[in-house]
Specification:
Elements: H1 2-16, H2 19-32, H3 34-70, E1 78-81, H4 107-115, E2 119-132, E3 137-140, E4 148-159, E5 164-177, H5 191-199, E6 204-207, E7 213-216, E8 222-228, H6 230-237, E9 243-246, E10 256-258, E11 273-282, E12 289-298, H7 305-310, H8 314-319, E13 322-330, E14 343-344, E15 346-348, E16 353-355, E17 361-362, E18 368-370, E19 377-380, E20 390-393, E21 397-399, E22 408-410, E23 420-422, E24 431-433, E25 436-446, H9 448-453, E26 472-476, E27 482-488, E28 504-507, H10 508-515, E29 522-527, H11 535-552, E30 555-558, E31 563-571, E32 589-597, H12 600-637, H13 639-647, H14 652-685, H15 691-708, H16 710-717, H17 721-725, H18 738-746, H19 749-760, H20 762-793, H21 797-835, H22 837-845, H23 850-883, H24 892-919, H25 923-929
Parallel strand pairs: 3-15, 5-6, 8-28, 11-25, 20-31
Antiparallel strand pairs: 1-29, 1-30, 2-8, 2-18, 2-29, 3-7, 4-5, 4-12, 9-25, 10-11, 11-28, 12-13, 14-17, 15-16, 19-20, 21-22, 23-24, 26-27, 26-32, 31-32
């Protein structure tokens, strides 16, 4: 029936010409059934892959670009640092690195930078000095104190996020006497009593008629004083919108002469000049400090100091019972900024604090303590199971709170402000700086948290230590075991790890009059106009940074596209004897900080585009190899028909035209359906199709069809009709050949037949090996590229977010490549089964068990995998080595080994369809035909 149909078709073709060839093509394709559908499905798959992967690639790149563009510019585009500042290239920098500079940039250099073209805002920060908090003076106890001995105990606490720690302790012993019995002009205390009080450790003497006991709390805590250019700072961060009371600083705010210096004199007894410093105070510091005080009357049976000395002296007073007159929290300047300008004494009425009814007030003069200082880090290994970069802090000394015997490790150098001397003539512990004293002149208050909220985007966060302390999270104990995360808070230890941002801001002009011209620590610069998130935008800002360096000699660092990188930092302790301590200080453990990876956004853009292009190229090249095998299979299935056509007079070019027409029809149909399916899937996943790719997909598929048809056309031109149409088996083992004899002598029979069968179909085997070779190269390079891409992105918060958005297309691309490789091997083996049906039947007829036949095909599949994959992996490793694109996370040889094993697994699975087909061969029909 089939032969008659073919003959009729040939007659029609001969008489009507080319118009009927198309009709004949459709008849052949319809008769091919599942084989035609399979071949068309490959074109469909290629078209769908091209559009879908290009769409997901474009969408991924666009998403990555949008994410990076949104987080491309933070509050500033570059920072200007003092000369000779070292910022490691390509490495993350600590977030407090910029706060570690106490000066080095002059006002003249700042003015130069402001005048350069292309700069919209240049906002300087000058970290002046740490300053001791003002003393709060309190009135406690009854209005008329009974003569005798009293004791005032102070304890200052800070909450570090885990527990209350003692910042300072102090004890004051007080003696109250009845001054009404003392005659006018006579000393309150004679020399003998004064000596006794000194030996008893009495710190203060008060008359019972003076009312409540008046005491100033120990001023042990410190705050950071910084200076800004008000106009520039407002342009950069809208500081004016965060004012909660008073007003914003202006450039007209400068030092104000203050005649009242509280009697402070210099070391030679000369009076000093006083100035008021305009201050804008932060009302929202993260530090949580409080002071507890108790005022106790010592219940002694006598009030005479000499009697107390005779009864046991200081030890007697230390252990005598007492009556508590006051116990509670003392108001602090840390919690009430109004105390800075000088405030009324705080009177305790038994329930609340209020201003002294007599109107007495106290003035606050700055006590400069030390310059800001940075931390020193050394790289170490992270705890087991942690993948973050890790460092350890280097101790710089010991910090011992006043009045406490509990020391802490100091990690910062505490250097005194040059030109500072201690007061010798005043009644309070003040400091004289260059012969002058300075007091606070508060003009307003601002909410630091409100300012920080304007730039607190976790993906592009840049250090703004002026308004916010970076979070320090305790994540591991000293032994490296994970613990419940705890955010650490700053304490009163100014040499510790975590420090509060500046409490008070003054103007640059006022600060210059205090410390001189080279006072600026860092200048944050924002470039004018739009800065695109690409290489051009980076180069534009880089040129401005280079111009700043050339004109001023300062160090300029571009911060575009920067992002925080979580980093582990070990907080060590100290052993007994180091730095002279008499006790061991235990280590705290590992904290997680946000270091800054500078400029990684640009790297992410380049890597995302390169990786996605690799995915599309990989799939298309593997599609080409698979189409060659598929079309070769189509030719094999039609060999007898082509032989018949040739025998009845067809020219080779006519058979060639017939096959090319089939390939183009299948490519057109499969490509069109693939385009429609791809657009549907693109719409479902919310991706954006690349319309340029959509327009050229069908021409590309047709070109792919022509390219992949070259070898099948060669097969058609070499068809021998007489040999194909000859009846009987076509199996010829040629055991007498030298090659077969050599194989039989050195390889077991089954292995020899495996190699021989592959050699018999050498061209098709070579194509399949080429497909496997190419797949192995692409798979190795792609996996290494994806790992390198992940390695590049992992770590920073921005990179992790971009990676999350690009994972799906990467996985899809790898899976698609593996699927095509599987289909390529499976199709080749199925083709082998179809061509060797008679051979398989004869083998079983002479006694081969079906298991041996199946094993033969398994060995052929595994041999193909080894011969194609091993050279491909070696070439891929050479390519990666030559291009210096090796990632450091997973050893590349391990990737190569995994690729070989995986391809063996894929090939083993690809033999299953061939095995199933061999089991369905009708043995009796084959033998009957023979």
């Amino acid at each position: 029936m089939k032969q008659g149909k073919v003959s009729l078709t040939i007659e029609v073709l001969d008489s009507k010409g080319w118009m009927y060839m198309i009709q004949y093509v459709f008849i052949v394709l319809r008769r091919g059934g599942h084989r035609s559908l399979l071949t068309g499905g490959i074109f469909l798959l290629a078209a769908c892959a091209l559009i879908l992967l290009s769409a997901t690639t474009q969408t991924t790149v666009l998403q990555a670009h949008q994410i990076i563009s949104k987080n491309w510019r933070s509050t500033y585009d570059l920072v200007v640092l003092p000369p000779k500042t070292v910022v490691p290239s390509g490495q993350p920098v600590p977030a407090d690195q910029f706060e570690g500079y106490s000066g080095g940039i002059s006002i003249q250099q700042y003015e130069q930078i402001k005048s350069l073209p292309g700069i919209a805002v240049a906002a300087p920060i000058a970290f002046i000095s740490y300053v001791r908090y003002p003393t709060t003076v309190v009135l406690v106890g009854p209005n008329h104190l009974s003569p005798g001995f009293y004791q005032m105990n102070w304890t200052q606490f800070s909450f570090d996020g885990r527990q209350q720690i003692i910042d300072a302790q102090d004890e004051q012993r007080v003696y109250v006497l009845n001054c009404s019995s003392v005659s006018s002009g006579v000393p309150l205390i004679d020399e003998r009593t004064e000596d006794a009080l000194r030996r008893l450790g009495v710190d203060d003497v008060q008359c019972s008629q003076d009312g409540k006991y008046l005491a100033g709390i120990p001023d042990v805590s410190e705050f950071l004083l910084a200076a800004i250019d008000p106009e520039s700072e407002d342009q950069l961060l809208n500081l004016n919108k965060s004012i909660t009371s008073g007003r914003m600083l202006t450039s007209q705010d400068t030092l104000r002469a203050n005649a009242d210096t509280g009697g402070i004199t210099s070391a030679n007894g000369q009076p000093v000049s006083g100035y008021g410093v305009p201050l804008l105070v932060n009302t929202q510091l993260p530090e949580q400090s409080h002071t507890h005080a108790s005022f106790t009357r010592l219940l002694t049976p006598f009030t005479n100091p000499n009697d107390a000395l005779a009864a046991g002296g200081p030890d007697y007073l230390q252990h005598v019972s007492g009556q508590t007159l006051f116990s509670g929290e003392i108001p602090l300047a840390q919690n009430n900024p109004q105390f800075f300008s000088g405030s009324a004494y705080q009177d305790w009425d038994g329930q609340t604090w209020s201003n002294d009814p007599l109107g007495r007030r106290t003035s606050f003069f700055f006590t400069f303590t030390s310059l800001p200082s940075g931390l020193t880090y050394q790289s170490i290994s992270a705890p087991s199971g942690a993948s973050l970069p890790a460092y350890t802090l280097v101790p710089r000394g010991v910090y011992t709170p006043p009045g406490s015997n509990q020391s802490a490790v100091a990690f910062r150098d505490l250097t005194s402000l040059p030109g500072t001397s201690s007061d010798v003539g005043g009644t309070l512990d003040q400091s004289i700086y260059n012969g002058k004293v300075y007091s606070a002149d508060i003009v307003g208050e601002y909410d630091g948290n409100r300012v920080a909220a304007a730039f607190d985007n976790s993906l592009d966060w840049l250090p703004e230590e002026t308004y916010q302390t970076q979070p320090l999270v305790l994540s591991y104990d000293a032994q490296g075991h994970p613990v419940k995360p705890v955010t650490l808070l700053p304490t009163a230890n100014s040499a510790g790890v975590s420090l509060s941002p500046p409490l008070a801001l003054t103007t640059l002009d006022a600060a210059r009059q205090i410390v001189g011209d080279k006072l600026i620590s860092v200048i944050r610069v924002r470039v004018a106009g739009t800065v695109s998130a690409d290489e051009a935008g980076w180069q534009r800002v880089s040129r401005i940074a280079q111009l700043i360096e050339q004109r001023t000699g300062l160090r300029a660092v571009v911060t575009l596209g920067s992002s925080p990188q979580p980093t582990l930092v070990y907080i060590p302790g100290l052993k007994k004897g180091i730095y002279g301590i008499d006790q061991t200080i235990e280590p705290l453990g590992w904290i997680e900080e946000r270091w800054i990876a500078i400029g990684v956004g640009l790297v992410y853009l380049k890597e995302s585009q390169t990786t996605q292009q690799l995915l599309v190229g990989s799939v298309l090249l593997v599609c080409l190899g698979y189409l060659i095998v598929t079309l070769s299979s189509l030719v094999t299935a039609q060999r007898k028909e082509f032989a018949v056509l040739s025998a009845v007079g067809w020219e080779p070019w006519q058979a060639t035209g017939l096959f090319v027409t089939q390939a183009l029809v299948l490519a057109t149909g499969g490509g069109a359906v693939g385009i429609g399916l791809a657009l549907f899937l693109v719409a479902q996943i919310g991706a954006s199709p690349a319309w340029f790719v959509v327009q050229w997909t069908l021409p590309a598929i047709l070109g792919l069809a022509l390219l992949s048809a070259l070898y099948p056309l060669w097969q058609i031109w070499h068809i021998q009709p007489a040999e194909i149409l000859r009846s009987g088996t076509t199996v010829s083992f040629k055991s007498e050949s030298r090659g077969r004899a050599w194989l039989d002598a050195r390889i077991p029979a089954l292995g020899s037949m495996t190699v021989y069968n592959l050699i018999r179909a050498r061209i098709r085997t070579f194509i399949t090996l080429g497909s496997l070779f190419l797949s192995a190269i692409l798979l190795t390079v792609m996996v290494d590229g994806i790992l390198a891409f992940r390695q590049t992105l992992e770590g920073t918060l921005l990179g992790n977010y971009v990676l999350l958005q690009t994972t799906v297309p990467q996985v899809v691309g790898v899976a698609f490549t593996i699927l095509l490789t599987f289909l390529c091997v499976a199709d080749l083996l199925l083709l082998q089964v179809r061509e060797r049906r008679k051979e398989i039947g004869l083998l079983q007829a002479v006694g081969w068990r079906p298991r041996l036949v199946e094993q033969l095909f398994v060995q052929e599949g595994m041999a193909l995998a080894l011969m194609g994959t091993l050279p491909g992996v070696l070439v891929a490793l050479a390519i990666l080595l030559a291009e210096h694109q090796l990632q450091n996370g997973v050893p590349v040889p391990l990737i190569g080994i995994a690729t070989v094993l995986f391809m063996l697994l894929v090939s083993a699975l690809a033999t299953i369809p061939a095995i199933q087909a061999s089991r369905r061969i009708p043995l009796m029909d084959i033998l009957r035909a023979e």
